[in-house]
Specification:
Chain A: Belongs to the transketolase family. The complex is a heterodimer of chains A (284) and B (332). Chain A has 284 residues and is an alpha/beta fold. Chain A contains ten helices and five strands, in the order ααβααβαβααβαβαα. In chain B, the strands form three sheets. Chain B has a seven-stranded mixed sheet, sandwiched between helices. A five-stranded mixed sheet of chain B has the order 9-11-10-13-14, with helices on both faces. In chain B, strand 13, helix 11 and strand 14 form a beta-alpha-beta unit. Chain B is globular and about 55 Å long. Classes of the chains: A alpha/beta (284), B alpha/beta (332).
Chain lengths: 284, 332
């Protein structure tokens, strides 16, 4: 974020900062969590909830809202942070993350949390659910968008591609798929687990409008969301975001990457301090 | 097997051939017609299928309400998840495919997308149990076992055309996911001769008898009624209790009937002996401390079944009337 052309919109940068901070705070409560993913996905969530989506914080089930589906349920820590930032979940609930009887379980579930549209976690289900919701919205003449947030690992699942074919077949222009390409899966780099490149060509061949951008470049993220929303063609839209796990915390960015970044007890506060410091520098 | 050798060799009929015996009274497409009728007063009903509208009688709905019909292609995981998405938007999806594909190929999507959120989706799956001679790829002999494992899922196994057409509005009125075994095409009509009406969650006595109580679901109830008639010729008095709702079971009626003394209890089902009505009833009886004089199961074996003509296979696996009569007599 140091190049002048990448000068972020201040409010969205603030939102991304707070989403990262909330996620780190929740990670500290549990002593673990998918915080690497949350840090990497925070910019996309900041733009989704701070710029692109229509919703009413006080009325999470408002019929006119844009639907945000968290297909990768383990990213719940990231979405809870975004929902706190959006005013849908009170900040005070953050300290219950992953605890018994909390509304914020480790893997996202629709029946537990306001603003959590689906129970993700069994990977590859978000996009086909999104196809049904997008068909349903169009049937009701409801102009809302459906956003499906998914990981690159979910590209392994056949159901993702069943849904991709179907969305194009039905011309679902109200469906926007957001793919987090951090190249990390449970058993190693996605490219080693099951290679998916050339990814943009694949989606295009399936009939989708495709953009591929740096998912940690806020102005580019904003522009991609605007393009996806304003496109006039009768086709579904996908944005492929290349992201960096641990983004914003250099010692986590550099740590040996895997699906689950190990964070020592003392490092949570250290990470928060680094985040606060770089935010203050941005403000200056 | 001299008698078997004398019989003409039968050939496998078309995959979707009617299960009706020759000369039996039938009704055409009871599911499709009932759904079209119901949809007139329920604008929230939509129809969805995985490339099997024509073979599940959903084509009638598609013709009557083209704007409310959604073709999802031969993609069962998508079908289930998208139906869940439709239900989340307040619509009432009736979705169809064959039972093998709906259950085996899409189990996690039924479990996680539809059932976990108690979504109002009605899964109507054709070719239940041994109703096709095409072999294990098409014989859903294990669907009830799988579906019974899904929490909160209501399971219905109708007997005939009357049962199917009455079940359609009943499952639509029920708020929550339902799995219904679908009989399609020319479906036998038998229950109109009895004082019977389908009620979700209720087992109904169709005939009483002192010696044997046959507890059955699906088309096995039709077989049970014929079996009871045959047994009468041998001075055996058989009762038939039809339990079209497999889950939740009508425990009250079943326990009340089984508790009557001196009767052999036979559970007859068009399903593997594992995980279906028989095991469900056995568990109910054991846990409730209700002991029948004896308990037997007429069900399909725990095996990959043969391909062939349905009458041959029904004989081979003991679910034809002839086989049922022989077996029940041997148990008395």
């Amino acid at each position: 974020m140091d190049s002048p052309s990448h000068k972020p919109t201040p409010t969205l940068a603030d939102r991304a900062y707070r989403i990262r901070r909330y996620a780190l705070q929740m990670g500290e409560v549990q002593g673990q969590g998918y915080v690497g993913q949350a840090l990497g996905w925070a910019d996309v969530l900041a733009v989704a909830y701070g710029h692109a989506m229509n919703y009413r914080p006080e009325e999470p089930e408002w019929e006119g809202r844009d639907r945000f589906l968290l297909s990768h349920g383990h990213y719940a820590i990231a979405l809870y942070a975004a929902l706190i930032e959006a005013g849908i979940i009170p900040e005070s609930e953050l300290e219950t993350y992953g605890s018994d009887d909390s509304r914020l379980p480790m893997s996202g579930m629709a029946t537990y949390t306001p603003g959590m549209e689906i129970s993700g976690g069994s990977l590859g289900q978000g996009l086909p659910i999104g196809v049904g919701m997008a068909l349903g919205l169009r049937f009701k003449n409801n102009p809302a968008f459906v956003y499906n947030s998914m990981s690159d690992g979910e590209l392994d699942e056949g159901s993702t591609w069943e849904a991709a074919m179907s969305a194009a077949h039905h011309g679902l222009s109200n469906l926007i798929c957001l793919v987090d390409i951090n190249n990390q899966q449970a058993d190693g780099p996605s490219s080693k687990v099951l290679g998916f490149e050339p990814l943009a060509d694949k989606w295009a061949a399936f009939g989708w409008h495709v953009q591929r951008i740096d998912g940690n470049d806020l102005p580019a993220v904003i522009e991609a969301f605007d393009t996806a929303r304003n496109l006039q063609t009768a086709q579904p839209r996908v944005i492929l975001f290349d992201t960096l796990m641990g983004k914003g915390i250099p010692f986590l960015e550099q740590r040996d990457k895997n699906h689950f970044i190990r964070v020592e007890a003392a490092e949570w506060q250290q990470a928060i301090a680094i985040l606060d410091q770089s935010q203050q520098q941005e403000a200056v | 097997m001299n008698t078997a050798e004398k019989k003409p060799r039968l050939t496998t009929s078309a995959m979707i051939a009617s299960i009706a015996a020759e000369g039996q009274r039938v009704k055409s497409a009871p599911f499709g017609n009932a759904l079209v009728e119901l949809a007139a007063s329920r604008p929230d009903i939509v129809g969805m299928t995985a490339d099997l509208a024509k073979y599940t009688d959903l084509h009638l709905f598609a013709k009557a309400y083209p704007q409310r019909f959604f073709q999802m292609g031969m993609a069962e995981q998508l079908l289930m998840a998208a139906a869940g998405g439709m239900a989340k938007e307040g619509l009432l999806p009736f979705i169809t495919t064959y039972a093998v594909f709906g259950t085996r190929r899409a189990y996690d999507f039924i479990h996680q997308v539809i059932a976990e959120e108690n979504l109002n989706v009605k899964l109507c799956c054709a070719l239940p149990g041994l109703t096709t001679g095409y072999g294990p790829s098409h014989q859903a002999t294990d669907d009830l076992a799988m579906m019974r494992g899904v929490p909160g899922l209501t399971i219905v196994d109708p007997c005939d055309a009357l049962d199917v057409e009455q079940a359609v509005p009943a499952i639509a009125a029920h708020n929550g996911p339902v799995y219904m075994r679908l009989l399609r095409g020319n479906v036998p009509l038998v229950l109109d001769e009895y004082d019977y009406r389908f009620e979700l969650g209720k087992a109904k006595m169709l005939r009483d008898g002192r010696d044997v109580l046959i507890l059955s679901s699906g088309f096995m109830t039709m077989r049970a009624l014929e079996t009871a008639e045959e047994l009468r010729k041998h001075a055996i008095d058989a009762a038939v209790l039809h339990s079209p709702t497999i889950k939740p079971l009508d425990a009250e009626t079943i326990l009340h009937e089984v508790a009557k003394p001196g009767r052999l209890v036979v559970v007859a089902e068009n399903h593997s002996e594992i995980g279906g009505l028989g095991e469900a009833v056995a568990r109910l009886l054991l846990c409730s401390g209700v002991r029948p004089a004896a308990f037997r199961q007429i069900a399909l074996p725990d095996a990959f079944l043969d391909a062939g003509a349905l009458p041959t296979l029904h004989d081979r696996y003991g679910i034809s009337v002839e086989a049922m009569v022989t077996r029940i007599k041997s148990w008395l």
